[in-house]
Structure formats: structure tokens, C-alpha cells
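Discussion board: Methods & Data

I've been asked by a reviewer to show the raw model output for two of the constructs in my manuscript, not just the figures. I'm not sure how much to include, so I'm pasting the format here to get opinions. Each protein appears as its amino acid sequence followed by a line of C-alpha cells. Is this the kind of thing reviewers expect to see in a supplement, or should I convert it first? Here is construct A:
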Amino acid sequence: MALYLIGDVQGCDAALQRLLDTLAFSPSRDTLFLLGDLVNRGPDSAAVLRRLMGYDNAARCLLGNHDLHLLAVAHGVRKPRRKDTLDGVLNAPDRQPLLHWLRHQPMALLETLENKDLLMVHAGVLPAWTAIKTIALAREVEAVLQSPAAGEFFHAMYGDAPAAWNDALTGMDRIRVIVNALTRLRFCTAEGTMEFEAKDSANAAPTGYMPWFAVPGRKTANITVAFGHWSTLGWLGRTDVLAMDTGCVWGGSLSALRVETQGHGIPWRTELIQVPCEQAQKPGDCISWP
């Protein structure tokens, strides 16, 4: 049995097939954890969704900003953007089951491997949030997303404010901050105020900001947080953070990290596996929402 963390697929089903072939993936034996942005900008988002649906519990998928954007477009809240490649899903004969499945995927996951926690999100975690709080807040979003209030949720989802978390937040302001942190966060201040314009590497933080995982004293520093979303950051493998978006849709590679526990308190054994992607857009084509 193997556990694999996989970065942003973004509709690149051919690359995903090559990666799974390289892994010799078996849904009866192995488990995939896909870190969000399953769809959009790549050539075949519908095929990606059908493939992952077919794996049932062997593929555990997070929602990213592009996935939420697809759901908002499907609900008629937003029109597709010029660079979107969502028509394959929106016009599919199995559109409804695909969207139903997508809407019921989680916003964050927490696994315990050999007494150490692995928190998985699409983008980031605010410095004041523990892993347990992150999961609880993610569940708040999931409950709204899967409820009759989903339409209201999609209408209120777009926007950058409030830019910081406050426990007193309520309603859609509260939900928007959680969504923005989990699906869009790259840089924030030491106090947790988020910034959404900068998309460059970690070394190009705007003045007064830093990568969310570099904030001193962040409450998830004692565990491992795996995330995608940040293609200009690329692969980053540390004991506390695993960055898995290696820019597949931008002509980079699709990456999987094999994680194996060794027992007796020995650190996890990991192996990075990558396959090239035929998709070649410019990184600058990426936009703030999604």
C-alpha cells in the first residue's frame, strides 16, 4: 500500500494518466490525495473528474479555487473567463453527477501517519490556525457548499475582504476568509493579513508580507502541511511543508510524492515522481480569481 500526494492537475488528464502509469497505481492497494485545482486551463477537465470519481475512496480530492470557480459558473453566478476550459464539463451529458461529486469534496484533510499529522489544503493556512481549527473551519465551508445555500455562497465567494481572520466573523464574510485562505493564500503579514495580487516566488514577497509558511510562530509549524496552488514556488520538500504544484498546466511537470511510514518513530520515507505535461500556457495567464 502506498500513499501519494499529487499537485494541481488542472484538466491535464493525459499527464495524470502518465503519472499514474509511472506510479503503477492500483486503486485496490494505493491511495491518492489530490491537493485541489482538478480542473480548468488544461484540455480535458471532464476526463479528470470521471477518472477520479471512478477511483472512489482510492482518490481523495480537495477543492481548489479553480474547482470552486467551475461550480460558480455552473450555478450561473459567474460567466466563464477567456482562459477557462470548462466547456467539456458544462456541456457533458454527465454534467450533473460530475458537479455533484465535485461539490461534495472536502476543503481540507488531516491524516495521522506514524504519530505525526499531515494537513492537506489547496493553498495555505493562516498562522493563527491549528490543524484542528483548520479542519473545523473547512467543514463550515463544506456544510454551506453542500446545502441549499450554495447559490448564496457562490455569489459571496468572490472578493478579497475581509483580508484577515477574526473569530467574531459571521455569515458570508466568515466563509469568504476561510475560502480565501484555503484556496488562494500565498503571502500574508506576521499578523495574518492576506495579500492576493502577488504570484511570484517566495523570494518576491511584497513589502511587509512573507510566505504564509514563513510566519514566525505559526501554529501548524509542528506538523507537515501539504499544499498546491503556487506554481512559481515549485517543489518544496521540508519536514513542515510540502509544496506540490510544479506547473503542469504551464508546461511544467505533474508531481506525486510517495509517502511511506517506517514505524518506530522513524521519519517518513518520501520519493518525488514527476512526469512532463504537454500543456504549455504562460504562467502570466493565471488570474486572481480563480
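Construct B, same format:
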Amino acid sequence: MTGTVTAPILRLNTADNVVIALRDIPAGADLGDGLVAAEDIPQGHKIAAKPISVGETVRKYGQVIGVATQVVAAGSHVHIHNLGMQDHRREVGAADVANRIQPAPRQDSFLGYHRPSGRVGTRNYLGILTTVNCAGSVARFIAERAEKDGLLDSFENIDGIVPISHGSGCGMSGQGEGYDTLFRTLAGYAQNPNFGAILLVGLGCEVMQIPALMGKGGLADQARFRFMTIQQTGGTAATIEAGVAVLKDLAEQANKAQRAPAPASALMLGMQCGGSDGLSGITANPALGVASDLLVAQGATTILSETSEIYGAEHLLTHRAAPDVGEALMARIAWWEDYCARNFGEMDNNPSPGNKRGGLTTILEKSLGAVAKAGTAPLEGVYLFGEKIDRPGLIFMDSPGYDPCSVTGQIASGANLIAFTTGRGSVSGYMPVPCIKLASNTVLYNRMQADMDVNCGDIVSGVSITDKGAEIYRLLLSVASGEKTKSEAQGFGGVEFVPWQIGAVM
């Protein structure tokens, strides 16, 4: 999208029978080419470009987003009152990975924290990670005491202390999907390169035992990982005192790290969309897709997730994946269909009420816009939630569409940056990983400037998607080098650790 856009509507593909309102349109407005608005149409919503009969497929992006449930006159609002889902037939599609992203002619860099593992952090935090909910308050008490005592005052290279609590760790089976998922998440968080050191705190009698995490979880380096249980240490007060002392020792080690040049290939970007609207798939998401391609060209890794929110658009990913990768993605889709069925849910229970107010109607429409975050790079691999990602390029990590949970998995998988697009105004942050917020429309950006880092709404006014993607890419490098995001400035990140809880709670 280039040049000055003056028309109030946008047709995304010549095959579409709907157009998009780029601003609020009053009834009777001339939309051009003989089309007149039959009623008031909100920004981001769909308008019938021609008469649509009952049962006729409705197309946006050149793709089917549903079927008309009643006759729709030209110029009428197309939304939940006259557009419904059809049976979704899964399609793997023929693999075509020939159009690979060409390596960048110049290697870009950022200033990061080099870890013994070879990975590079964009922040340098001390973490207090809990094995079970029962240890959550004590972890917070330790962090509060350390802050009150000014423990970090003399450690200028440490960004802060992050106590991490959650709602699980016990009352669960010690084997199976639920246990394995939580284990990967906790072990992955502890090894995220944005942590300089970790204190692991447990109660002592929980299912998720510390020795298992320290051993199989790979947390054996005593300079960076220490542990204690509340029961063995002598209770709350004794654990707080001991915890603060351990944090001071860990801080001595973590403070030795200093920012040093690192190649952009060391970046791993988790990409999310939340509170999406009808413009998300037109502005912010494709602009983030351009930034993703720029990172992939540098040899970096970008992570697409939210399996329930690519449903109906998976063929756009399998078409650019090797056969085994495409089959792995479809296997996760099949798992999700079974997961929903056995829990009395449906894959098409999206979009949310807020998404609908913003103009999205069916999960097919939402998914087609969400996949735009993936740019054009081939899909190189499919990983489980929180599984360590060990290759560059565009990656898919299986996760729910619930944003805090999905980001938690991406950070456990190794993400050291997060980019989050929103059309309704999601507010959140994800310590220890900085998160930039991309507003899909200018109205939102102006209303919530203290929360939004980038306005992608000016794409509607003529800024090219390519230029906006380059702007996002440059900001990601700056944030990786230490520039604070809006969510960091406001102190977000204390409650957004949300492991995916699968299985029975006993």
C-alpha cells in the first residue's frame, strides 16, 4: 500500500466480494464505482461490494472467510448478523519453498549480553522462579526485601529482579502432557538468555520437584542457578533471609556481564497479536511480517504461534514448508481439534467480543490476518509449547491463542524479544523479555500513546508496509540494545507468566 489513500474503502484482492472501511462511514456515503453505503459502517468493518446471496462464500484477502447467512445488498454491512462459518476442510497444499529469503547484504548488530550457552540476552535480570504456586508469595517477599534493602544499588549492569509465580506445579500427574509442558516451560524460562542468574524456590512436597529441574532441566551451573525449598530452609522468614543472601551472590556473578556487540542473527523474536481488529491484518500484521523477513535475512529466528488463531489459514504456511514441516503443523492442528472436542470447545469459538466490535467476524477471517505476521519466509520448523528452538528462520511454536500464555511459551522456547500487534489496545509486558506494541490504527495509537510503541495506522494514509516494517525492524534492534519499551517504562511483566495448564487438576 503506497501513495496517499483518499478513498474511504479498500479492496484487498480482486476476487473479494467485500471491501474494508478505512474510517467510519455514514449511511448514504458515496464509496465510488456506483457503490453507496446502505447504513453506518464502523472503521475496519466489511461492506458488501456487490449483492451476495444466501449460502454464497464471502471472500477477503482473496480467501474464503465464511458464507452469507442471509441476502446481503450491495453497500450493506457484512458482519455477525449475516456472515457465518462453513465447514473448514484442512488443506496441506503443495510445498513450495523455492522462494527463500535472500541473506542480507550487510550484517546488522545490537548490544547484548553474551551467555555461556552461546545465546545472547537483550536484558540482564535476576529471576526468582517457583516450582509451584505454594512458593509464589515467598518469591515475591524475597524480591520485595531485596528491593527494600537496595540490593541492586551497586550492580549497575542488572536490570532488576523478576519473581515468577504461577498457578500450578502440584495437584497434577507427574507424567504426561501437562507435566511435560510445565517442565519445559520452567526449564526454558530459567535458561532464557535475558536472565543473568536464577534462584529456584519450591515448597518441598510438590509434584514438580527441584532436583528434576536442576538435573534434566539443565540448570547445573552453580554460578547462575541456585535453589532452596521453604520446608527445608525453615519456613517463610528463614527462606526470605536466605533468599536475599543468595540473590546477592548471584548478583555478583550476573553483574559481570556487560553489553557487547552481537550479530542480529542472535535475536529470537516472538510475534503475537491480541485485541485484533479489522485493520490488524491490513496494517500492523503485514508490517510485522516485513520486519520478520528482515530478521530472517539476518539469520535470526522469528516465532509465529497461537495455533487456534491460524486455523483456516494453515495452508498459507504449509505451502511454504518442506513436506515434513507441513505435516508436523497439520498434526498440531489435528491435536487441537481433538483437544477442543474432548473439552467441549470448538476451534471456531473465536473471534472474541472485542475482535467483533473491531470488525472481525469468523475465525477464518481472523486467522488470515494473523498469519500475515509471518511475512513471506519459508516455515522452517514446528515446535511444542516451550520447546527449545534450535534453528534460525521462521518457526511455528504450538500454543493457545490466549496472549499471556502464548508469549510465556515463546519466552520458554528462547525468545529474547516480543512484538505484539493490537487493534483494540492490549496492555501487557513480559519480563524478562521486552515487548513492543504495534497499533493497527491511528485512533488507538492517539488514545493510548503511553502503551503503544509504533503507529501502523498511518499505512492507511499512504505509508508503505515496506517502510513501516523497516521502522519496526530498526526499533527492534534499538530495544535489543537497551532502549526501553512503553510496557517496560510502565512496569509491566509481573503477572504475565501463564504456563499452559493441560490435563486434570487433582
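Answer (T.O., handling editor elsewhere):
This is acceptable in a supplement if you add a one-line summary per construct. For B, something like: Confidence is low (pLDDT under 50) at residues 1-5.
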